[in-house]
Design brief:
By secondary structure, the chain is α/β, with parallel strands linked by helices. It contains eight helices and five strands; from the N terminus they run αβαβααβαβααβα. The chain has one domain: P-loop containing nucleotide triphosphate hydrolases (Rossmann fold, 3-Layer(aba) Sandwich), CATH 3.40.50.300. Helix 1 crosses helix 4, helix 3 packs across helix 4 and helix 4 runs parallel beside helix 5. The longest helix is centred in the middle third of the chain and has 20 residues. It is globular and about 40 Å long. It starts with a helix and ends with a helix.
């Protein structure tokens, strides 16, 4: 039985989403994984320009649930439990989703694999990366507030700390280096979704 707290959290997150894209007969779940500053959110926005989908961004949802986030393990557990419930519900309703979160460890990605399987949704996994010097530059720009759409608070220290958590993705996936033109990668992923 689901915790009452998880259901309340999911409801709060759903209200924070705003307008949803039109439902489709065969929804998809694109899981975008990568370290802070590698370009997950930029990549997700560019992909959503080509594939109408709801971007479920963990940083934005965290702040919807916790206005002054602590990033504690308990807070993260609540966030992802509610996010996973929300994604499962939206896929059942036919809403295509791009999940933008670090998802560095396989144990964090596995619930998403299961959700896609349960919903008979096409699952596409994307590992986003960039060279450390590019990431450092981006994270310094984040500190200066260059991109107002950037919801993350992660800095270079967070990147360095999380770098050791990156685990191999156990399923077929795309690797996108966002320090180069991402258009060819987006074209490939669009073709894979439509196949």
């Amino acid at each position: 039985m689901l915790e009452a707290q998880a259901i309340r959290d999911m409801s709060k997150l759903r209200k924070a989403l705003g307008k949803l894209p039109e439902p489709v007969t065969n929804p998809f779940l694109i899981v975008v994984s990568g370290l802070p500053g590698t370009g997950k959110s930029y990549f997700s926005r560019r992909l959503a320009e080509r594939l109408p989908a709801l971007i479920v961004e963990s940083d934005a949802l965290r702040r919807a649930l916790f206005p002054t986030p602590s990033h504690s393990p308990e807070e993260s557990r609540r966030l992802f439990q509610a996010s996973h419930l929300l994604i499962a519900q939206l896929l059942k309703e036919g809403i295509p989703i791009i999940m933008d979160a670090t998802n560095l460890e396989e144990r964090h990605r596995e619930p998403l694999y299961h959700i896609a399987d349960q919903a008979s949704a096409k699952l596409i996994i994307v590992r986003v990366k960039a060279p450390p010097e590019v990431v450092r530059q981006r994270l310094e720009g984040r500190r200066e507030g260059i991109d107002p759409r950037d919801k993350s608070r992660a800095d270079w220290e967070v990147y360095r700390r999380m770098k050791g958590q990156v685990e191999r993705i156990g399923r077929h996936h795309f690797i996108v280096d966002t320090s180069h033109d991402i258009t060819p990668a987006i074209d490939k992923i669009v073709r894979a979704v439509r196949r």
